Amino acid sequence: MNIFITGGAGFIGSAVIRRIINNTSDCVLNIDKLTYAGNLESLLSVSNSKRYRFIKGDICDKKLLDRVFSEFKPNIVLHLAAESHVDRSIDSPTDFINSNIYGTYTMLESARKYWASLDKNLQSKFRFHHISTDEVFGSSDSSFFLESTPYNPSSPYSASKASSDHLVRSWGCTYGLPILVTNCSNNYGPYQFPEKLIPLMIINALEGKPLAIYGDGMQIRDWLYVDDHADALYKVLTEGSVGETYNIGGHNEKTNLEVVQSLCSILDRLQPVQTNQISRYSDLIEFVFDRPGHDRRYAIDASKIEKDLNWTPRETFETGLEKTVQWYLNNKIWYSHVLDGSYQRERLGKAIDRIN
């Protein structure tokens, strides 16, 4: 297959690309704007593959998208490009409206134009797979999010993703575009940008900085190892039913405090503290004022994808977190380049300006 991936230099997108290039014979074209969270160093292991191509570009650029569709001729679209950090959406919601809503609209229109030009056989095989989040459902005290759970977003980020989900489904309903939607729980693992909870806490702990936790730390999230998510996405795009939505979760509900305490325990074992100022990494934990509109609990019911597509996560939270901590211990160069900004200055990898 020819798979057109948006946002492939991001955390989840790069994991999907590595999974496809390393485990299939599919060809991938990755378009990414390379904003602050887009890092081509995460794709160095596959950048020389003849089945992988990269274009630096904006999903709001319809002329570019039309050219990509026309020349690359994808069978599959995996739409991952999005602004995704809640704190940033509170400070600068405009970027989220542009990328997540208008960018998705532009992708849908270019995909629809291309799909309409195909013969009936190719039309029937085409898929537009939109990747979303469990945050669109808002906060839940006791129940689990089903695919049918009403949307109740709490932040500019989750509201913009909810909007994009509605757009995708409406293009499927109104125009017949063969769409798929997946809503995932919190991802973690290697190559994650260190503004997110787990990599931020690992790096701060290693540098002896405070491990600041919002509020009382009792916010609950379901944690999904990123490589498990990549496997699930490929399962959906190859075996999922057109028009369906699938929740993807890790079956790992943990409070934020539990997460930080767990990674501190792993660090205590793998790289013990080497300073007299603290005796263990958990001594660095401190609590700070909660952020506005902070949802208390997200919890995915992933029974549909397990029943319909026979997918379950391979990693438990314990095994996945151990792998994640070990990866950051082994890859200081990668996260150092992120922290000092050199990954943006160097832009390792080869950006092509032609498809063929």
Q: Tags for this entry?
A:
356 residues; alpha/beta; Rossmann fold; 13 helices; 12 strands; 43% helix; disordered C terminus
Task: Describe the model.
The chain is α/β, with parallel strands linked by helices and 356 residues long. Helix content is 43%, strand content 16%. The protein has 13 helices and twelve strands. A seven-stranded parallel sheet has the order 3-2-1-4-5-6-10, with helices on both faces. Strands 7-9-11 form a three-stranded mixed sheet. Strands 8-12 form a two-stranded parallel ribbon. Helix 1 links the parallel strand 1 (2-6) and strand 2 (27-32). Helix 2 (62-72) runs parallel beside helix 4. The two termini are 16 Å apart. The model is unreliable at 346-356 (pLDDT under 50).
Compact summary:
With about 350 residues, the chain is of the alpha/beta class. It is about 45% helix and about 15% strand.
